[in-house]
Recover the amino acids of this structure.
């Protein structure tokens, strides 16, 4: 049975763009609407996004810490999806980083517990590293930039 309200798996890049392009002090209604969706469980992200965001001590980090319920722990099904993703697109992550890239986890969350991925990434350029939209296309997951997410929500500000 299809859910009445879809779930959106948020990428770090989308949350960072929200912070810089739509700051809370200028767009308080947008952030209030987002927080409603977070509280209802319709906007989610993997714990790896939380880890990326909270590496800095800024407004977004403080916001994420107030909304910890949005950030989901990895389960066995998602781990299998991450393995499939990385088998197909090993260049999606930077192996040398201390903190694992959140990208495969964002897509795996959408594959197992969400419907859509919200990201500010664009498909890769020829010869470049794989990006979230490439992985979404590989696995038949719908992805959208922030503005499309706003439209999907029916938000007008």
């Amino acid at each position: 049975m299809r859910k009445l309200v879809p779930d959106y798996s948020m990428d770090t890049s989308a949350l960072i763009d929200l912070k810089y392009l739509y700051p809370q002090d200028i767009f308080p209604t947008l952030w209030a609407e987002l927080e409603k969706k977070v509280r209802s469980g319709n906007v989610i992200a993997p714990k790896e996004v939380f880890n990326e965001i909270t590496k800095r001590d800024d407004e977004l980090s403080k916001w994420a810490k107030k909304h910890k319920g949005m950030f989901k722990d990895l389960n066995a099904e998602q781990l299998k999806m991450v393995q499939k993703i990385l088998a197909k697109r090993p260049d999606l992550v930077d192996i040398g980083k201390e903190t694992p890239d959140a990208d495969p986890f964002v897509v795996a969350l959408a594959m197992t517990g969400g419907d859509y991925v919200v990201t500010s990434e664009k498909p890769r350029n020829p010869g470049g590293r794989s990006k979230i939209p490439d992985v979404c296309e590989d696995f038949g997951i719908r992805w959208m930039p922030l503005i499309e997410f706003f439209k999907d929500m029916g938000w007008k500000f």
Observations:
- The longest strand covers residues 43-46.
- The radius of gyration is 15 Å.
- Strands lie at 8-10, 43-46, 71-72, 116-118, 142-144.
